[in-house]
UniProtKB/TrEMBL annotation:
The keyword Cytoplasm does not apply. It comes from Halorussus limi. InterPro entries: AN1-like_Znf, Znf_AN1. Pfam families: zf-AN1 (PF01428). Keywords: Metal-binding, Zinc, Zinc-finger. Coiled coil: none annotated. This is AN1-type domain-containing protein. Residues 4-41 form the AN1-type domain. It comes from the Archaea. Gene3D superfamilies: AN1-like Zinc finger. One of its GO terms (molecular function) is zinc ion binding.
Length: 57
């Protein structure tokens, strides 16, 4: 079973982060919620934001 790398919550069918390949619960899945190392590259390189996340505005 996977666990959230941020809070340690046990996860079933975790999706993980598209950017850093970490595994996170829904609360920490967003890059900004786990200080994602991958999204920092995105900010620099521009627009690779696709539909990898729930909860987009
Ligand atoms: Zn979590
Ligand atoms: Zn990440």
């Amino acid at each position: 079973m996977d666990t959230c790398e941020q809070c340690g919550e046990k996860l079933v069918g975790a999706r993980g982060c598209s950017y850093c390949e970490g595994t996170f619960c829904p609360h920490h899945q967003l890059p900004e919620k786990h200080d994602c190392p991958g999204v920092k590259n995105l900010d620099k390189t521009g627009d690779r934001f696709d539909s990898g996340f729930d909860g987009s505005p």
